[in-house]
Write a structure and sequence with these properties.
The complex is a heterodimer of chains A (about 140) and B (about 375). With about 140 residues, chain A is of the alpha+beta class. Chain A has helices spanning about 30-40, 110-120, 120-130; strands spanning about 5, 25, 45, 50-55, 60, 65, 70, 80-85, 85-90, 95-100. Chain A has a five-stranded mixed beta sheet with strand order 1-10-9-4-3, with helices on one face. Chain A has a three-stranded antiparallel beta sheet with strand order 2-7-8, with no helix packed on it. Chain A has a two-stranded antiparallel sheet with strand order 5-6. Chain B has a five-stranded mixed beta sheet with strand order 5-1-31-30-29. In chain B, strands 2-3-4-6 form a four-stranded antiparallel beta sheet. Chain B has six helices and 31 strands. The chains are: A alpha+beta (about 140), B mainly beta (about 375).
Chain lengths: ~140, ~375
């Protein structure tokens, strides 16, 4: 089945609602690039129609993790949570969409973290697992 | 600042010291045990180590005494080959990265994205043996941190799902006593919010933490495990009534202790008491009966921290983490210990390792005695 990707308006201004969703802070083409990076790298969990692609964006020059979104829903006294990871799911027509996630809320499976360890390092991946990673 | 440090080579995520055994979980999700005492003794013999008595006294602390090391720093580096050749191993594949690990009453508790698993173990000569199956006692949420108490009661920091109280139905006393009762305690949320850490440690006080907030709760006293178990075995006529009272006490929600709006910048549990620090490092004990902080020790350290930091007590001082750097406050001096680490742990409930800290690093684990 052919694969397609849809940029969802509820995770982007102006339709985005701060109390309900996370917000993409990268251009739409970067969102698609982040999805492709996760898909091509086979950072996939789940089976068949319930598959999830996990991904992140790295600055190739500085070789570091880049902020891709914001969450305004949690830790109200702390203000905005910067997001560096994304989760992508598909519908019955194999049309994918995704959004930036906070790993303390959307758990990134440790099987994925074990793979990312080679790229992001043990310190970052372990802290993500413990809910202690801050971007 | 004096310390003894034993560095063990390995790709670990978790480390725990318990009665002479070193429990580790590596990045492949393999829980492994190693006879720590045997490893240290073999290393000293094979390397003709000159400070062997000091090392044994402070690192192994078989006399189980509170002590502070004041001598010259001693450091040991034990590589993977030596560990593999000189350590009795026993392992269990967890197939998951743990978020936390606790050991109580010969049972390993492991929190992870799977919830909470337990592995009861038995002692063998120089080693322990694990059962074939891991038991799951909670699978509703990912658990970031856990803390074990009496009667199998276990508190979970479950992220956005809040702090949850569950019971380990495989616990010896739960099985012997509570299982007799028709209405058993059930899991419940004891604090809403997002909680990533919980600290309970054999006391009535529970401290919950997240990135920028901490809250304290007071639990009801409960009957002593051994006492009620003996009453049951003796078929004491008051057993039924005592059991009913226990269930009622276990069922009561912990009371929130309002410690906010004070000059205390951070607090933690030490020997069952809430100990707080002000911005100059002076130590205060919280008096629960009249809701006030009482000065315990004047420090007035000029370089003390303000704001949010992690702190835990060991017998000779306070271990603190701020901005991803670990410090120790020992003899009223604050020294940096480590700035490149995965996680760290102290053992406030232990008798042998009350003065120890373990730091998991990229390819090594450092075991400190201060």
């Amino acid at each position: 089945m052919l694969l397609s990707y849809q940029v969802k308006s509820d995770h982007r201004l102006p339709a985005w609602k701060p109390s309900e969703k996370s917000l993409w802070k990268v251009e739409e083409f970067v969102e698609l690039d982040i999805f492709s990076y996760g898909l091509n790298s086979k950072w996939i969990t789940g089976v068949e129609k319930k598959q999830v692609v996990w991904s992140f964006h790295r600055c190739s020059k500085e070789d570091n993790l880049v902020k891709i979104g914001e969450d305004h829903r949690k830790f109200s006294s702390n203000g905005i949570v910067n997001l560096g990871f994304a989760k992508f799911t598909s519908d019955n027509n194999n049309c994918w969409h995704g959004y930036p996630i906070d790993p303390t809320t959307d758990n990134i499976p440790s099987g994925i973290l074990a793979i990312w360890r080679d790229t992001l390092g043990k310190k970052i991946t372990s802290r993500i697992n413990q809910g202690k990673f801050k971007l | 600042m004096s310390f003894i440090k034993v560095s063990l080579e390995g790709d670990f995520l978790e480390v725990f010291l318990y009665s002479g055994i070193l429990f580790t979980v590596d990045t492949k999700g393999l829980l492994t045990t190693c006879n720590f005492k045997e490893l240290i003794e073999n290393y000293m013999v094979k390397n003709n180590f000159k400070n062997s008595n000091i090392l044994k006294k402070y690192i192994l602390n078989e006399n189980k005494v509170k002590q502070t090391y004041l001598g010259e720093n001693i450091e040991l580096n034990i590589d993977k080959d030596f560990i593999n050749k000189n350590c009795t191993f026993n392992s269990v594949p967890l197939n998951v990265w743990p978020t936390d690990l606790d050991i109580k009453s010969n049972t390993v508790y492991i929190s992870s994205e799977r919830g909470v698993d337990i592995i009861p173990f038995e002692w063998k000569v120089n080693s322990i043996s694990f059962p074939k199956e891991i038991k799951n006692i909670w699978d509703d949420t990912k658990v970031f941190n856990l803390s074990t108490g009496s009667w199998g009661r276990t508190i979970l920091a479950a992220g956005k799902e809040g702090a949850i109280e569950i019971f380990n139905i495989y616990d010896k006393y739960y099985n012997n006593v509570i299982n007799d009762f028709y209405q058993k305690p059930t899991p419940k949320i004891i604090a809403n919010g997002t909680w990533l850490e919980c600290d309970w440690g054999y006391s009535k006080i529970l401290v919950l933490k997240n990135f920028n907030e901490q809250k304290a709760f007071l639990f009801e006293n409960t009957a002593k495990q051994d006492t009620l178990n003996e009453m049951r075995e003796e078929k004491n006529e008051k057993y039924e009534q005592s059991l009913e009272e226990l269930i009622m006490d276990l069922d009561k929600d912990p009371k929130y202790i309002n410690l906010t709006d004070s000059f205390i910048v951070q607090y933690s549990i030490n020997n069952g008491e809430i100990i707080g620090l002000d911005n100059s490092g002076d130590r205060y004990k919280y008096n629960i009966s009249n809701n006030s902080w009482v000065l315990k020790k004047k420090i007035h350290n000029n370089c003390f921290f303000e704001g949010n930091f992690e702190m835990k007590f060991i017998s000779s001082g306070i271990v603190m983490e701020r901005n991803e750097v670990i410090y120790i406050d020992k003899m009223n001096n604050i020294d940096e210990i480590e700035n490149d680490f995965i996680k760290w742990r102290v053992f406030p409930r232990s008798k042998n390792y009350i003065n120890h800290m373990v730091i998991v690093k990229d390819s090594v684990v450092d075991v400190y005695a201060f």
